[in-house]
């Protein structure tokens, strides 16, 4: 009976500690507020994250990568926005069109459309009396790496700095790199990879020849064709290339790359940014043990570990801590 009581107390204490740990992992030192932001295309479902106990020094505008993403990336941004809050900045992010009530359909957007959307959000922020927009920083990840430089190059709104995470350079090159790395991970042979890339070239040709969706379906070598919306989205953005926008940027850029990126050729990205941006304005950071998303690389390779880390410990075991630290430092923390 004595041992049973001790065992029960031990398990109870263990559950209390586990509960406290999980609670800590999901409590963030910041204040989130939901907002509707009006634009010329409708309204956007947005989240503003503000510092706690200190005056905001400026705003950081978050620009998503590919896919139907909500304002917080299903909570995945929170470990990072907490760091921005600790550094004294308010972050603004919003659900893509067609997601969480935002007007429109994100698959109807070109990169120019996305850039115009960002500009309108910043113009809205600059009119808000309770937002300090003295410093405006743009943060973009992955596909957002074609949007952020475009906004900065257009110079329609005053931008202080760019933070670019895992950005690509050229749409077609990125697609080929991603396909090659994905097939390598699946254990495909060089011959199989070559065959798949040849099929990709055939699809690119159909896109460049401006074929209709029915023509694509009739001629594609894919077993699972793209949806009509996705086909039109790729057609609009196939020629995306960051070089011309980089040529017109004259503000500081922090380029944050992952050492285990399977989506983007980071060597190509680093080479292009180093070529077009002066040494005085460009700082490059490579995060170790990081996947494209800046999750820990070893965690990202397992759906089970990703789910466990997301549910139980997103601060410490999901998002790479070196990446979070760099986010804090990059905005002057």
UniProtKB/TrEMBL annotation:
<protein>
    <recommendedName>
        <fullName>Serine aminopeptidase S33 domain-containing protein</fullName>
    </recommendedName>
</protein>
<dbReference type="InterPro" id="IPR053145">
    <property type="entry name" value="AB_hydrolase_Est10"/>
</dbReference>
<dbReference type="GO" id="GO:0052689">
    <property type="term" value="F:carboxylic ester hydrolase activity"/>
</dbReference>
<feature type="domain" description="Serine aminopeptidase S33">
    <location>
        <begin position="55"/>
        <end position="295"/>
    </location>
</feature>
<dbReference type="InterPro" id="IPR022742">
    <property type="entry name" value="Hydrolase_4"/>
</dbReference>
<dbReference type="Pfam" id="PF12146">
    <property type="entry name" value="Hydrolase_4"/>
</dbReference>
<dbReference type="InterPro" id="IPR029058">
    <property type="entry name" value="AB_hydrolase_fold"/>
</dbReference>
């Amino acid at each position: 009976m004595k041992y049973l009581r001790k065992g029960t107390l031990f398990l109870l204490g263990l559950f209390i500690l586990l509960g406290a740990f999980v609670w800590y992992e999901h409590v963030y030192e910041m204040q989130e507020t939901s907002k509707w932001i009006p634009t010329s295309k409708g309204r956007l479902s947005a989240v503003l994250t503000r510092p706690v106990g200190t005056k905001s020094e400026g705003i950081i505008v978050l620009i998503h990568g590919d896919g139907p993403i909500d304002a917080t990336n299903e909570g995945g941004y929170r470990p990072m926005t907490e760091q921005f809050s600790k550094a004294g900045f308010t972050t603004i992010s919003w659900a893509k069109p067609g997601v969480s009530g935002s007007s429109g359909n994100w698959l109807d957007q070109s990169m120019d459309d996305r850039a115009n959307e960002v500009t309108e959000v910043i113009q809205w922020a600059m009119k808000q009396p309770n937002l300090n927009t003295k410093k405006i920083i743009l943060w973009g990840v992955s596909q957002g790496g074609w949007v952020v430089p475009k906004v900065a190059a257009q110079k329609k709104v005053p931008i202080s700095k760019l933070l670019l995470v895992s950005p690509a350079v050229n749409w077609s090159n990125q697609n080929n790199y991603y396909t090659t790395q994905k097939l390598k991970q699946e254990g495909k042979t060089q011959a199989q990879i070559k065959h798949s890339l040849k099929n990709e070239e055939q699809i690119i040709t159909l896109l460049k020849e401006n074929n209709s969706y029915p023509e694509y379906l009739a001629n594609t070598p894919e077993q699972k064709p793209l949806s009509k919306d996705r086909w039109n989205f790729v057609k609009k953005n196939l020629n995306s290339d960051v070089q011309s926008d980089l040529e017109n940027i004259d503000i500081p850029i922090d380029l944050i790359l992952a050492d285990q990126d399977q989506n983007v050729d980071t060597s190509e990205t680093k080479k292009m940014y180093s070529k077009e941006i002066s040494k005085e304005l460009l700082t490059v950071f490579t995060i170790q043990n990081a996947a494209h998303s800046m999750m820990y690389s070893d965690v990202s390779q397992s759906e089970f570990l990703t789910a466990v880390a997301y549910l139980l410990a997103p601060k410490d075991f999901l998002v790479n801590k070196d990446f979070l630290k760099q986010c804090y430092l990059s905005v002057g923390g």
